[in-house]
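[#protein-structures] MJ: dropping Nuclear transport factor 2 family protein here for a structure pass
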Amino acid sequence: MTSEQSRALVKQAWRAFATHDEDLIAPFFTEDAEWLAPPRNATAVALGGSHHMVGRDTIVRFLSVDFSRMFVADVSVGFRGFYADGDVVVVEETMDATLAGGNPYRNDYCLVFELQDGLIHRVREYTDTARANRLVFGES
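AK: finished. structure tokens for Nuclear transport factor 2 family protein:
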């Protein structure tokens, strides 16, 4: 894929993620896709899940079901950039939401999407885990 095609695919995937519809999300991932987030990140801890999701079905379940258990309302993503080089796309964003307990959430993310045969094969997620823990658990 060209860089522009890769960037367009990841933008389409984000629109699908926002629907929380598994039938729209699943076609964007390889069957053996991986999503790697920082160990002990607040979302994984709060939901009792793993920071390393393996397999399309696991990732799709998180995006279509589990995500909404934690971020229950007012979810918005402000994108600062989509940068592509061949089959690698880097996304900079800020996510705002209301947490299940009613508190506001706002954190910055950088995600690196690795594509394979026109599908998302691996996502590496980077975020401020200390901030997320304070927002979710009130920890310092």
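MJ: nice. The radius of gyration is 14 Å.
AK: one more thing. The chain has five helices and six strands.
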